[in-house]
Amino acid sequence: MQVNPAHNFVEGKQSPTKERINVVSPIDGQVFTEISASRAEDIDMAVASARQAFTDGRWRRMAPSKRRDVMNRWAQLIEAEALPLAVLGVRDNGTEIGMALKAEPGSAAQTIRYYAEAIDKVGGEVIPTTEDKLCLVHREPLGVVAALVPWNFPMMIGAWKIAPAIAMGNSVVLKPSESASLTLIRMAELAVEAGLPPGVLNVVTGHGHEAGAALAGHMDVDALLFTGSGGTGRHLLTASAASNMKPVYLELGGKSPNIVFADTPDLDVAAKAAVGAIFRNSGQTCVAGARLIVASSIKDQLLERIVSIAEALKIGDPLDPANDVGAVHSEAQLALNLSHVEKAKSSGATLVTGGHALHAEGFYMAPTVFDTVAPTDALFREEVFGPVLTVTSFETEEEALALANASDLGLAAGVWTSDLSRAHRMVRDIQAGVVHVNTYGGTDHTIPMGGVKQSGYGYDRSLRAVDQVTHMKSALIAL
Ligand code: NAD
Predict the structure, then answer these.
(1) Is residue 440 within 8 Å of 274, Cβ to Cβ?
(2) What pLDDT does 131 receive?
(3) Hey, whose CA ends up nearest to atom 23 of ligand 1?
(4) Is-contact 363 330, C-beta < 8 A?
(5) Catalytic amino acids?
(6) Cα 277 from Cα 291, distance rounded (Å)
(7) Which of 157, 229, 444 to mutate to test the pocket of ligand 1 (most atoms within 8 A of CB)?
(8) Where are the alpha helices (DSSP H) in 26-153?
(9) Sign of CA dihedral 67, 68, 69, 71
(10) For residues 365 and 159, what is the distance between their CA atoms, to the nearest angstrom?
């Protein structure tokens, strides 16, 4: 079924561009709509709209309680359209519908409410300082904030960035991935319907190297909030250095270890969680538990359970709730996943299950498990962003920790143990933004999200996120 062509959303209305991009659904590999392919002049228009809205203060000078009400109404409208939004998003990026409903409109609405409630609670401070002077520290919005987001969970990740930025009084230009733009355009339309003044949230779509690059290098953008791959993160840092040295906050990829000790409280629970951690959304979650690091004494038992659960997963049309796992996001991603498989086979790792595409139509991949993966293997180190699990065994806790940290990335980790002290030692010593103990995943907008090492250094979610979109201006007043 075709969907109406979508356009950029600038100054509260559709803003057609000359060039267009066909949008292919990973469900069946067919073109089902098209979006704008923005060029530099289209980006200029969106930034100018955002700048004008910021300068004339149509939003940031509105009473905080009114701004809060607008954002709460926005959340309500998103919830009222949750099902059509989730279905539209699934057609765009192939995420299984159950997860999309919860993680996309559901989570976006909650995030918007959270920051709406912060509007009249987060402020500046009065500093007790020198004699005869009063020091007021004002928390001010930055101005025009650009948010660049990836194709997985665009509404959820988009909301993590735009909700705090808008709540704090900034104007935003949002650039979704060229292959997951549709729900974010609709989300911006709903914002205006809820009362957000035109120009405060503009959405521009297009190719990363063109539309994204024009935004990243723009002289009138005050900050970049980014979630995506490390390669693009590097481009943004360079673009900032070459333009106006805007701050760049990066949330990048991961290759997260999931460590199972022999004293794990329940092997069945650990096996089920390990499968969910890597195979949900076809492995396309940034915090995927992609490296299983397991005590050698329980490896065979755990692996047997994991393989049996993974092989029973139903993989197919993500709009069919009977399926457990949906599609790989694009043909190019599927080809990339399969090339990682070929490389791993030739490196000597043992393919235990999967390793191939599924179905004649659309882009699907069998859950894939490689055993005996060495820490020097590319598969141990490189993010696949697909349903591929590596298995590596260890003898001692020190060895497990060394394996976990043998990565340039540090986004998430899992630890399974009954030993409380060991759990705390691992939380302390694993280099990651989040360490799960006897569970994996399931955080929300109230908890800061960030990585270490080359997984980035920005913070989405929680009240930490408002620091990235505000600056502190002090006023010294003689008494
Ligand atoms: P990507 O880096 O290819 O694209 C992300 C965004 O940047 C898109 O909007 C894209 O159009 C844009 N872009 C691409 N090239 C650009 C350029 N040269 N200049 C400016 N913008 C450009 O990432 P992706 O493939 O969409 O997403 C997958 C990656 O995102 C994975 O590495 C995944 O781990 C990561 N991710 C991280 C988190 C996190 O919270 N840390 C969450 C989700 C995804």
Answers:
(1) yes
(2) 79
(3) 228
(4) yes
(5) 251, 286
(6) 10
(7) 229
(8) 40-56, 64-80, 82-93, 97-101, 107-118
(9) positive
(10) 29
pTM of this structure: 0.97
Three-point CA angle 281, 360, 323, nearest 5°: 35
Spatial distance between the Cα atoms of 166 and 163, rounded to a whole number of angstroms: 5
> What's the confidence (pLDDT) of residue 427?
98
d(CA 163, CA 149): 14
Residues 6+ apart with CB under 8 A from 318: 27, 90, 94, 95, 96, 97, 100, 325, 326, 327
Distance 262 CA to ligand 1 centre (A): 37
- Whether 281 contacts 95, CB under 8 Å: yes
> Quick check: helix, strand or coil at residue 353?
strand
Cα–Cα distance, 133 to 56 (Å, whole number): 31
- Alpha carbon of 214 to ligand 1 centroid (Å): 15
b/e string for 18-41 if b means 16 or more Cβ within 10 A? eebbebbbbbeeeebbbbbbbbee
Residue 202 has pLDDT above 80, yes or no: yes
pLDDT average, residue stretch 50-76:
98
The neighbouring-strand residues paired with 315 are: 325
Integer Cα distance of 290 and 345 in angstroms: 17
Tell me what percent of the residues of the chain surpass a pLDDT of 70: 100
Q: Which tens digit of pLDDT belongs to each residue from 426-463?
A: 999 999 999 999 999 988 999 999 999 999 998 999 99
Q: What b-and-e string marks burial along 146-177, b requiring 16 or more CB atoms within 10 Å of the CB? A: bbbbbbbbbbbbbbbbbbbbbbbbbbbbbbbb
Phi then psi for 444, rounded to 5 degrees? -145, -170
Rounded distance between C-alpha atoms, residue 139 and residue 123, angstroms: 6
The tokens of 333 are what? 């991603």
For ligand 1, which residues put their CB under 6 angstroms from it? 148-152, 157, 175-178, 208-209, 212-213, 216, 227-229, 232, 235, 251-254, 286, 383, 385, 411, 449, 451, 456
The model's confidence at residue 179, banded by pLDDT at 50, 70 and 90, is confident
